[in-house]
Amino acid sequence: MPVVRSSQAVTHEIHGARFVSYATPLTGAVELCAWRSEIPAGTKAPVHTVTREEILHLLIGELRVTLDGRTERITAGDTVIVNPGTVLGLENPAEHTAISWVTAPVGLAAELADGTRLTPPWAN
Asked: Does pTM top 0.85 for this prediction?
């Protein structure tokens, strides 16, 4: 039974946010990846299109989430389902870091507005 201790989590930083990776193929996951996302106050992530379904559950704080041009404010306890091909934007308008738990299938990738393709290590 693979157990990933908090001390074994791998932290990645990109676009002003932190992604703390727990479940990936490197830690024994076969189908799903899971990570903690930390988005500091005032951070606006680049708009991107996801290739696989992504589920974001907000643990702490609030976020403005834009899915295909429609913006919603979410708060702790809310869950966002991002379907494949959805254009996603995230912004933390609050004064504190927003923390979420995110899951996605192995192989998730994202395409930025400028055509850059990201294959995040926390989801592969």
From this structure: yes
Q: What is the mean pLDDT of residues 40-66?
A: 97
* Distance separating alpha carbons of residues 76 and 98, to the nearest angstrom: 9
Q: Is the pLDDT of residue 88 over 70?
A: yes
pLDDT of residue 2: 84
> How far is 27 from 43, CA to CA, in rounded Å?
29
| CATH code where residue 22 lies | 2.60.120.10
Determine, yes or no, domain membership for 70.
yes
Flag whether pLDDT at 1 surpasses 70: no
The DSSP-derived string for 27-71 is GT-SSEEEEEEEE-TT-BPPPEEESS-EEEEEEESEEEEEETTEE
Helix (H, G, I), strand (E, B) or coil at 92: coil
- The whole domain housing 33 covers 10-123
State how many domains the chain has. Answer: 1
Domain assignment of residue 31, yes or no: yes
